[in-house]
Amino acid sequence: MERTLVLLKPDTIQRSFAGELITRFEKVGLKIVGMKMVWVNEEFSKKHYAAHIEKKFYPGLQAMITEGPVVAIVVEAPHAVSQVRKMVGGTEPKSAQPGTIRGDYAQHSYEYTDGKGISIKNLIHASGNAEEAKIEVELWFKPEEIHTYKTVHEIHVF
Ligand code: CDP
Ligand code: MG
Known about the structure:
This protein has helices spanning 10-14, 18-27, 42-48, 58-65, 80-88, 101-105, 110-116, 130-140, 152-157, and strands at 2-8, 31-38, 70-77, 124-126. It is an alpha+beta fold. A 4-stranded antiparallel sheet has the order 2-3-1-4. It is globular. The mean pLDDT is 96. Bound molecules: cytidine-5'-diphosphate (CDP) and magnesium ion. The site of cytidine-5'-diphosphate (CDP) has 13 residues, from helix 4 and helix 7. Cytidine-5'-diphosphate (CDP) is lined by residues 52, 57, 60-61, 91, 110, 113-114, 119-120, 122, 125, 128.
């Protein structure tokens, strides 16, 4: 089993469709094993986005991720990391495939946001690979915040 971190970024929460996006993950069979609302500060942003601190877009990225609360979720499935990335779609909403979350619910382009010096609003963060997922789940969740339980599928279907 794999676990991965999903963040519903401040733009998702402020646009009030957190539930709709969570439903997509539930419907595909990803099991939610941890979930909480968190307001990230600058220090925590630097930990979460450590790989991006030196990049030109980091100031805008930090401003975006600290502008309001996020919902942090850990999901579990045999291929949770790649499954979630597939559903989330490419980083730039303008070129993200229709059917993906970023392709269906957003439209920002690099051209537009880089020109304005703001972060691209793409609704979701999802760990990029298994190694990133392990680090990020440990950064965001204490062991006791991850829950073990059986879904109805595990009890009645499998
Ligand atoms: O989120 P993802 O893994 O798809 O992309 P990333 O390359 O790890 O970048 C992290 C986040 O930085 C993106 O999701 C965007 O919110 C932001 N970003 C940006 O605002 N402008 C860019 N030119 C590149 C990334
Ligand atoms: Mg990334």
